[in-house]
Amino acid sequence: MPPQRWHPHLWHPTTQVASADPPLRAVRGRGALLELDDGRQLIDAISSWWVTLHGHAEPSIAAAVAAQATELEQVIFANFSHPPAEQLADALSARSGLERLFFSDNGSTAVEVALKIAWQWWRNRGEPRRQLIAFEGAYHGDTMGAMALGARSPFTAPFDELLFEVARAPWPATWWGDEGVEPRERLALERLEQLLETPTAAVILEPLVQGAAGMAMVREGFLREVERRVRAAGALLIADEVLTGFGRTGALFACQRAGLTPDLIALSKGLTGGFLPMGVTLAREALHAGFIGASERTFLHGHSFTANPLGCAAALASLTLLEANPGRYERFEARHRPHLEVLAQHPKLRFPRLIGTIAAIDLVLEKPGYFNPAGRIVQRRALAEGVFLRPLGQVIYLLPPLCLDDTQLEQCYGAISRALEAL
Ligand code: PMP
Question: Which residues line ligand 1 (CB under 6 A)?
């Protein structure tokens, strides 16, 4: 087995070289498995940062990308359009009910674009609104605007002076057997109402699940109450579905499951089935209409790789595959449930919660938090059993690709359960 090592010319994301284990070296991905250069196979239980939707190297997406690569690999999207972009816009607009699609490169930029559209739309109307509202614990990406919208955290700390102000409402996260959720929801809605007394450009939320906050799940009814208040205040509603989009919560979009009709939706991650970096921001036609007219009204935003044809081809193939078998995402919750019920009995665990393909539970720790080493201990133990996890502080979660079979799912839960013995 070659020793794990740090490459002399690479700089890894969110990684402290002084304390982290050197990276695993992947050479191949097939379905739910990642193969390492030493021949080991690991179950990718977190879909490689939540992007691998169906499975690694999914043949129909690989074929679509390969075919597109020999036709048109890239073209400047300011002066050109192309069939895969048009087909993807048609498809996503029909499924989301939002008529306009703006392309960018990842989840952070999809959020930045939503924010900039919302902000400039009010300006273009001649009634600028300066307040933005987000939720406590929110995470919307690592670029400056997306960071500003997100909660302040160790991730934002070095940059806090640079981040613009965002008003914040509580996020009444809940779990199985939580008896205190109603008063927390009421408090959150009251706070939101107070904030909305100030003219507000937009309210942004991660529908149903705040991912990076630690798979913090809220009830559907709470989100509908949020939307009601946002509408009453005339503010725009932005849904960050970068994580939740494409079946992750058991519906095609979390907004559909929750009964929300946002004005803007940010998508990425599963968009291309996890094959290529791409983000899209869907917007209501009325927002697009607000940018038509004199040159100052223009949305002067664009990325070099806007609407990259390979990404579009991957996204179209991924959507086709997803819709060919919706049962795969609709039924995942029922597959998780019995395993999570057993795990939830463990005395070292609490707050079990589940939605769609996402199951999460907290380690009982004296000092929970992102840097608590307990998560790393669980990660190492599970790895030794061939399961790749990446706990978020005290939160252990599974967010596997849809192709994960029952045996592999059992392996994941078994590995978590046995890893707890090391704590
Ligand atoms: N929004 C949400 C809800 C996310 O979970 C993430 C990524 N974890 C982002 C935005 C940012 O996406 P990206 O990492 O592709 O920039």
Answer: 106-108, 111, 139-141, 206, 211-212, 240, 242-243, 268
DSSP assigned state of 129:
-
User: pTM for the complete prediction?
Assistant: 0.98
Backbone angles phi, psi at 239, to 5 degrees: -105, 120
Q: Which atom of ligand 1 is nearest to the CA of 141?
A: 11
pLDDT along the chain (423 residues), means of 10: 84 95 97 97 98 98 98 98 98 98 98 98 97 98 98 97 98 98 98 98 98 98 98 98 98 98 98 98 98 98 98 99 98 98 98 98 92 93 98 97 98 97 89
The strand pair at 358-363 and 387-388 is best described as unpaired
Residue of the CA atom closest to atom 1 of ligand 1: 140
**Ranges of each domain in the chain:** 26-57+331-422, 72-324
Which tokens belong to 43?
């179950």
Please report, as a single letter, which amino acid is at residue 198: T
Domain 26-57+331-422: top CATH class:
alpha beta
CA of 1 to the centre of ligand 1 (A): 34
Tell me, in angstroms, the distance from the centre of ligand 1 to residue 39's CA. 31
**CATH domain 72-324 topology:** Aspartate Aminotransferase; domain 2 (3.40.640)
